[in-house]
Amino acid sequence: MNIVTAFALSLATGFAVPLQAGTNARLGGALGHPLLATTVSLIVSLIAVIGVMLIFKVQRPGLMALQGTPWWVWLGGIAGAFYITTALLMAPKSVLNRTCACVCARLSRRGLDETPPVRPVRVATYGQGLR
To answer: pTM, whole model, 2 decimals?
Structure first.
């Protein structure tokens, strides 16, 4: 993936986080409960991911591919549901963006999410790669 595509995707993802929180908060208000909004959001996400998988013709592995994976890999789904529910509860209080930014930055900087630790990057550094 080239730097321009990576930068554009990162920027779009940054816009998506508060958008998701706001739309899910509105959905939670309309449905009367945050867990109902979380359920609808996850169903829509599942449909979208299946659509993208069909477009890119992603091959399905057998269930045996999951054999030998540690038990904690399933926590990602629980964390996603927790994030969506918490985000829609916190969105009206305007604390979500700062909280998510701080937590994500700390995790990624230290490599706690099993990605290599990163060094802080200035916006000017991204601009140098676009020349």
So the answer is: 0.62
Burial of 122 (0-12, 13-18, 19+ CB in 10 A): exposed
- Report residue 122 as tokens: 């200035």
Rounded CA-CA distance 30/36 in Å is 10
Distance set, CA 75 to CA 72, 82, 91, 102, 113 (Å): 5, 10, 23, 21, 12
Burial class (CB in 10 A: 0-12, 13-18, 19+), 38: buried
Predicted pLDDT at 31? 95
Whole-number Å distance between alpha carbons of 61 and 4: 32
Token pair, residue 14, equals 């940054």
Give yes or no for a contact between 80 and 42, defined as CB atoms under 8 angstroms apart. Answer: yes
